[in-house]
Amino acid sequence: MTGYNLKIENVVASTKLAESFDLTKIEIEFEGAEYNKQKFPGLVYRVSDPKAAFLVFTSGKVVCTGAKNVNDVHTVIKNMAKKLNSIGVETVPNPDITVQNIVASADLHAVLNLNAIAIGLGLENIEYEPEQFPGLVYRIDEPKVVVLIFSSGKLVVTGGKSPEDCEQGVEVVRQQLDSMGLL
Amino acid sequence: MVEVERTRYSETSEREKMRAMIKARKEKEKTDDTEKPEVICPECESRSLEHDYERAELVCADCGLVVDAEFVDEGPEWRAFDHDQRMKRSRVGAPMTYTIHDKGLSTMIDWRNRDSYGKSISSKNRAQLYRLRKWQRRIRVSNATERNLAFALSELDRMASALGLPRTVRETAAVVYRKAVDKNLIRGRSIEGVAAAALYAACRQCSVPRTLDEIGEVSRVSRKEIGRTYRFISRELSLKLMPTSPIDYVPRFCSGLQLKGEVQSKSVEILRQASEKELTSGRGPTGVAAAAIYIASILCGDRRTQREVADVAGVTEVTIRNRYKELAEELDIEIIL
Fold it and tell me: Is B282's CB within 8 Å of A150's CB?
């Protein structure tokens, strides 16, 4: 997109499809659905094409994870609603879908000296513990995302609510590294 | 005309800048003066001032002006009435320390049943004294907060002793822990975990880093928990600790492997070159240090096996091999096994 191979890896969205669900019934009807009350209070259901996973809760709330873009989330949730209708479960016609988190990866195509970056970005803004994790964690306030910077020049952007947030996050990091002459 | 205006303007601004600079410098000097006690006689500006401890006066040796009177003598006690006092020459108790919950400023009732004249106390009063002593002991820890602090500090001391850490690190750890308590960071975390994290942070602050594994071994919490708590308190207290340098680990690992000083300085040299070539970024400092020591031990003809180095450094042999390959390739070190 912007030359950094920004790629969205995961989109997490939540919505409310009904007032309540009978999860045991859905588990029987849907093939491959997992529901184990002792282990996890929700029902786990994986769909392919577009690939995604659902967490369905008794409160009627549904969490969709694993989608590769925001459009997929909408289609996948629509399909899910249809499927629920087909087994006789009532759903809300136009569910309000909110994207909670987007994880994206990017590449700056440069070898980075994380020690120098740690000092340059200010030790109070970052977290860099090579003993515990090889990446440098940089929390940005605007847009509110967390960027993991690796010495290979690859980045992971998480916590964004929209693809634009992720793009801006990468851009902020690139500009700051550029101004320090560390790129 | 405009040109002239402009030059004049720049001149005045230049002059103003100079003036501001001089002012700032003068002000700095003034504050410096107040910080240091005066060493110059205000009357004759002589520098030879003498402390007269007999009269507790600060006297100018040249003009005789008494600059300061009745000052506190910070030296050792000079009066002594018996042999014991002559040996001790002390006016104070043990130094204040953060490693004890009341900073070591507590009062204790002596266990001997003697009064201030050295006479033994009558049996009638002994029971009373016994009770007083008991309550004095109990009152040292007044509430739950203090009890927790006492427990945490004893835990800190236990871990530090097990690791053989010096006094300064213990004090620093205690200060870090106290700061965490003041900021209410303990709530929701285990005392042991925060104590271990404080110790880890203190080791790094005193640049004698211990690995999380080493701390984890002597504490009751897992390495993961310590790391998590450490990250939390270092962020909340903004400790601003630099990432640990592999060089800091070299002396300890070398002595653990019983290697000579030659190997040690060689490893440090290798690590300097490595950090210049950005070979250390994003890699665990212990692994890099271990590989450098391994290479240095071979170069100096005092070879240690990868297994031995790995055991001392607390990393795997695979890590050493990977780091060793990188270092050897990038730094052009020829190694003949």
Answer: yes
Mutate to test the interface with B, among A127, A129, A146 (most CBs of B within 10 A): A129
Tell me, yes or no, whether A163 lies in a domain.
Answer: yes
Binding-site residues on chain A for chain B (CB distance < 8 A): 111-115, 118-119, 123-124, 127-132, 134-136, 150-152
- A77 with A115, same domain? no
State the smallest CA–CA distance between residue A152 and chain B in angstroms.
9
Amino acid A123: pLDDT: 82
A4 within some domain: no
- With CB atoms and an 8 Å threshold, state whether B275 touches A130: no
CA–CA distance, A160 with A169 (Å, rounded to integer): 9
A3, part of any domain: no
Residues A87 and A124 both lie in one domain: no
Based on the fold, state whether residues A59 and A27 are members of the same structural domain: yes
Q: Identify whether residues A92 and A116 lie together within a single domain.
A: no
Task: With CB atoms and an 8 Å threshold, state whether B242 touches A131.
Answer: no
State residue B8's pLDDT score: 47
Chain B residues within an 8 Å CB radius of A119: 242
In a domain, residue A6? The reply is: no
Q: Do B284 and A131 touch (CB under 8 A)?
A: yes
Is the pLDDT at B1 greater than 60? The verdict is: no
Amino acid B114 reads R
Residue B47: band (very low, low, confident or very high) from pLDDT cuts 50, 70, 90:
confident
Classified as helix, coil or strand, A45 is strand
Instruction: Please tell me which of the candidates B240, B278, B280 has its beta carbon nearest to residue A123.
Output: B240
Beta carbons of B240 and A128 less than 8 Å apart: no
- Domain holding A148, by residue range, is 108-180
Q: What is the mean pLDDT of residues B34-49?
A: 73
pLDDT below 50 — which residues of chain A? 1
Q: For the domain that residue A156 is a member of, what is the CATH number?
A: 3.30.310.10
A140: which residues sit within 8 A by CB, 6+ positions away? A146, A147, A169, A172, A173
CA distance A2 to A108: 11
What total of structural domains would you count in chain A? 2
**Residues A15, A95 within the same domain:** yes
Q: Domain check: are A89 and A124 in the same one?
A: no
Q: What is the pTM of this model?
A: 0.75
B282/A124 CB distance under 8 A? no
Q: Containing H/E element for B15?
A: helix B2-35
How far apart are the C-alpha atoms of B178 and B176, rounded to whole Å?
5
| SS3 of residue B250 by DSSP | helix
Single residue among A69, A99, A129 that ends a domain in this structure: A99
The DSSP code for B176 is H
Give me the pLDDT at residue B108, please: 77
Q: Any idea which of A85-94, B216-225, B309-318 has the lowest mean pLDDT?
A: A85-94
